[in-house]
Amino acid sequence: MKSSNTVLIALFAALIVVLSLIPPIPLPAIPVPITLQTLGAMLAGAMLGPVRGALACLLYLALAAIGLPVLPGGRGGLGAFLGPTGGFLVGLVAGAFVTGWLARRLAARAAGAAQVAGYVAACVVGGIAVVYAFGVPWLAAVAKMDLAKAALAVAVFVPGDLIKAVVAAWVASRVERAWPMLGR
User: Fold this and answer.
1) Residue 158 lies in a domain
2) Where are the transmembrane segments (predicted)?
């Protein structure tokens, strides 16, 4: 791996840490708070591509697993992966990979509004659908909820996640203009 790739992976892992440390917003009756972690995973995938984006998320999770307080609320350690948000954490890696893979196919060759739309689609599928595909069943199992009830409980996060997808798409398209990274 080139040193520039290592630096980019570390930089985006640090970005996810910063976004995670912005105080989470707890919601009543739902053990999962509103955070900006998924924005970081979307940005990593959209801007770095599938492998480097997933590695940035994996590095972030490794830092959390060894006990550094990098998760929302200053949490860290393996216990965070066993709680109701554990599936969402694991889903960040797959979500960044899918976001990057789709961004390469939908946005890399496009320009203008089509490029932004490609990034939005990549972020919605990878950063929302894939992350939720890991997180909702995990939440249902840990919280001993019915799967449909868990899906309904996290539905309140969808509007905010859609906003994050648009923000990530806009940022990725602007950076891609000035400093193309998807082609590398």
Assistant:
1) yes
2) 55-72, 78-104, 116-138, 150-172
